[in-house]
Design brief:
Distance between the termini: 51 Å
Radius of gyration: 31 Å
Order of helices and strands: HHHHHEEEEHEEEHHHHHEEEHEEHH
Number of strands: 12
Low-confidence stretches: 353-370
Strand content: 15-25%
Shape: elongated
Number of helices: 14
Structural class: alpha+beta
Number of domains: 3
Helix content: 40-55%
Length: about 425
């Protein structure tokens, strides 16, 4: 089914076999994950070691050198063949090592950046990796969160979603849960759907996963992008052109010398060796290695400035970049907030010194290390009560971290660090 926007919530729950209040069971979710696969976009641009090595060895200049080495060896000139072969190996190794390291680093960064999402399963709210979502999962959306899959919204409270990356619409789109009568509504007008990769900017909501991974609208775009061929850089174009020109000149001169030698009754073998030597001499054997070393040095300099180069030829164009426009949240930052300073009525509380962990964590029940006036406690209590985030156990024994909106989670952690009993607050005490 593709017309989820024209489906009522009752029909939606029936079609996907889910209880909208309790979500899927863990067992059912595991079965669907096994059947449908992970909720992730298949990357077509990744390169394995063999592909990287193949790209190094199929450059025009390298192919000319390989041909020259083969001909020299076949004619018994093993010293020239060995020298040319060494240059080819050096060129291939330099390029391979640099680009393979870059691919491994990119893969490591992607593993670190796996997003998480709040899901209702077995009646409980859980925080799971987005790749484990399946059709029928009930997902909670909050301001600042990225939509992890294509969702049919079933609850909205002032929810607005920024869909510029998908539709080009510059303003956040107001969402609702009503049924759209027409089945052929344009993508940008499907106000009761939330699409993978878009960002909730206001309000909160709840949606049911209807498509995952490459079957989402974003996945369709990724499929089209995967069919686009890489364009060579200006440097690659010039080097290929130079290689073809030199190959033509070398073959032409070698053929001319060979013919003139035969007309003078010279030995065929001697003239073949002479012609090959001339053809090889025309080709600058050291050029590929020099270019690769130069690009590798440029890549290392850019790496020191925290720019990771996947393909060496890209150094030529990336080296001249002065401004990069990038999404910040989740790309340059982790979308995690922390209260560092509280200043109220002349009383100031510094929390920065307590931040010793990558995740905003807290040890519940530990008394406050601060001797602070009651006004600060009242302020933090208000922040903890007007809050939809919650504390969940961390992987470290005895430690907890905030789950939910990053700003609200930061207020909750600050209150717990201050020494407030969050359970007592929830039932009306301090």
């Amino acid at each position: 089914m593709s017309d989820w926007h024209s489906t009522s919530t009752e029909d939606l729950a029936s079609a996907l076999g889910v209880d909208l209040s309790r979500g899927l069971s863990a067992a059912e979710a595991a079965q669907r994950l096994e059947r449908d696969g992970a909720n992730e976009l298949v990357e077509t641009g990744g390169r394995g070691p063999w592909r990287i090595l193949w790209e190094q060895l199929t450059a025009t200049m390298v192919l000319i050198l390989v041909a020259a080495a083969v001909i020299s060896a076949s004619l018994g000139d093993f010293s020239d063949a060995a020298a040319i072969g060494a240059i080819v190996v050096l060129f291939a190794l330099l390029g391979f090592v640099q680009e393979y390291r870059a691919e491994k680093a990119m893969a490591a960064l992607k593993r670190l950046a796996i997003p998480t999402v709040r899901v209702v399963r077995d009646g409980d709210v859980r925080e799971l990796p987005a790749r484990e979502l399946v059709r029928g999962d009930v997902v909670l959306l909050e301001a600042g969160g990225v939509v992890p899959a294509d969702l049919r919204l079933v609850e909205c409270a002032g929810l607005k979603i920024q869909e510029a990356a998908l539709t080009g619409e510059s303003e956040p789109v107001d969402k609702h849960i009503g049924v759209l009568a027409a089945s052929d509504v344009p993508l940008g007008d499907r106000r009761n759907l939330a699409f993978m990769g878009t960002v909730a900017t206001y309000g909160r909501g709840r949606g049911v996963v209807v498509t995952t991974g490459m079957r989402t609208e974003l996945g369709r775009i990724a499929t089209l992008l995967g069919q686009v061929k890489d364009e060579p850089t200006p440097l690659q174009t010039r080097l290929d052109h130079l290689g073809k020109v030199l190959a033509g000149v070398g073959v032409g001169v070698a053929a001319l010398v060979f013919i003139l030698g035969l007309l003078r009754d010279e030995s065929i073998r001697d003239m073949l060796l002479t012609a090959v030597s001339i053809a090889v001499a025309v080709v600058p054997e050291g050029l590929p290695a020099v270019v690769t070393i130069t690009l590798a040095l440029g890549a290392q300099r850019m790496l020191r400035r925290r720019a990771l180069i996947r393909k060496l030829p890209a150094v030529e164009t990336l080296g001249s970049v002065t401004v990069i426009c990038s999404d910040k949240t989740g790309t340059l930052t982790e979308n995690r907030m922390t209260v560092t300073v509280i200043d109220l009525a002349g009383h100031r509380l510094e929390l920065a010194g307590e931040l010793r962990h990558r995740l905003p964590t807290v040890e519940p029940g530990v008394p406050s290390p601060f001797g602070s006036p009651p006004s600060l406690g009242a302020l933090l209590a208000a922040g903890a009560l007007c809050n939809d985030a919650r504390l969940a156990p961390n992987s470290q024994a005895g430690r907890w971290h905030a789950v939910g909106d990053p700003t609200e989670g930061a207020l909750l952690v600050a209150a717990a660090r201050f020494g407030l009993d969050l359970d007592a607050l929830a039932v009306g005490g301090i």
